[in-house]
From TrEMBL:
PROSITE patterns (UniProt xref): G_PROTEIN_RECEP_F1_1 (PS00237), G_PROTEIN_RECEP_F1_2 (PS50262)
Cellular component, GO annotation: plasma membrane
Membrane topology category: Multi-pass membrane protein
Xref: InterPro entries: GPCR_Rhodpsn (IPR000276), GPCR_Rhodpsn_7TM (IPR017452), Olfact_rcpt (IPR000725)
Compartments (UniProt record): Cell membrane
Membrane-spanning parts: 25-49, 61-83, 103-120, 140-161, 196-215, 236-260, 272-291
Keyword ATP-binding: no
Listed GO MF terms: G protein-coupled receptor activity; olfactory receptor activity
Name used for this protein in its record: Olfactory receptor
Entry superkingdom: Eukaryota
Family classification: Belongs to the G-protein coupled receptor 1 family.
Domain G-protein coupled receptors family 1 profile: from-to ranges: 41-289
Gene: LOC100913506
Lineage: Eukaryota, Metazoa, Chordata, Craniata, Vertebrata
Keywords noted in UniProt: Cell membrane, G-protein coupled receptor, Membrane, Olfaction, Receptor, Sensory transduction, Transducer, Transmembrane, Transmembrane helix
Length: 310
């Protein structure tokens, strides 16, 4: 990201809501509250999965990955955003901005791949329940998990660091954080090249996993419709409802952000959408999985019951 034959940029100014001081105070309270809920909710999910042996299954192994990911995802940018709400002119160094941009992009793609892996897990559990424990062995679960983290690194961090961005002395970013699209808009590079690169990358990291999820749920729906028992159908749908809700929220906002043509103009729409998949979704994930999942609620009741007895 170092511009040749241009004025070197050593820092960036993040506008965010600095032009609206009253709104910035409200935004600070909402951000702080959402971050605390995200941390507490996801840490609780991780603890319950580790604590209750009934949750030692492939489904909850991947859920623990997702909870850990959400903690990292929000921690990569939200604390900086909270601090910026208390500063009149939010400034972030060039190195911090680069790190934040790569971390956010990397962790976002890991979530895309993990959600696809979780859809595959549900597809095997419902479509082939008798061989589920054999097909989704602990070794395969670890391989799928590690593969998601490694593949995301190869698809995002390496291409981002090897794609030069040149800045003509402009250092004002109209965003809350160093979002990739916001940084690209102030670069001197020909935007068409960046659009082609992002469209190709988005196809591999967003559209392809999303199509795979849709195909998996197509097979799940076909398997459920073949069930004779109404109770069995309800149970099958209940195990998928939480995951499907997260998929709709995350992919809906991410695709609308990265699969649409971009221009140099900064838009408030981008800020709102980035808040949805970067702040709101990680906060909702533990709530969705705990409120709509009988096993997680049972583990929480068991934990509270043992604490009450002791």
């Amino acid at each position: 990201m170092d511009g040749r034959n241009h004025t070197a940029v050593t820092y960036f100014i993040l506008i965010g809501l600095s032009e609206y001081p009253q709104a910035q105070i409200i935004f600070f309270c909402l951000l702080l509250l959402s971050y605390l809920v995200t941390l507490l909710g996801n840490v609780l999910i991780l603890f319950l999965i580790h604590y209750d042996s009934r949750l030692h299954t492939p489904m909850y192994f991947f859920l623990s990955n997702l909870s850990f990911l959400d903690i990292c995802y929000t921690s990569a940018s939200v604390p900086q955003m909270i601090i910026n709400c208390l500063v009149r002119i939010p400034i972030i160094s060039f190195g911090q901005c680069l790190t934040q941009m790569c971390a956010g992009l990397y962790l976002g793609v890991v979530e895309c791949l993990l959600l696809a892996v979780m859809a595959y897990d549900r597809c095997i559990a419902i479509g082939d329940p008798l061989r589920y424990s054999v097909r989704m062995s602990p070794q395969l679960c670890i391989q799928l998990s590690v593969g998601s983290w490694v593949s995301a690194f190869l698809l995002t961090v390496i291409p981002t660091l090897t794609t030069p961005l040149e800045f003509c002395g402009q250092h004002v970013i109209n965003h809350f954080s160093c979002e990739l699209l916001a940084v690209i808009k102030i670069a001197c590079n020909d935007l068409r090249y960046n659009e082609y690169f992002m469209m190709a990358s988005s196809f591999l990291t967003l559209l392809a996993p999303f199509v795979f999820i849709l195909a998996s749920y197509g097979r799940i729906l076909r398997a459920v419709l073949k069930m004779n028992s109404t109770k069995g159908r309800k149970k099958a749908f209940s195990t998928c409802s939480s995951h499907l809700t997260v998929v709709i929220i995350f992919y809906g906002t991410a695709i609308s952000m990265y699969m649409m043509p971009q221009d140099k103009a900064s838009r408030d729409r981008d800020k709102i959408i980035s808040m949805l998949y970067g702040v709101v979704t990680p906060m909702l994930n533990p709530l969705i999985y705990s409120l709509r999942n009988k096993d997680v609620k049972g583990a929480l009741q068991k934990l509270c019951g043992e604490k009450t007895v002791s």
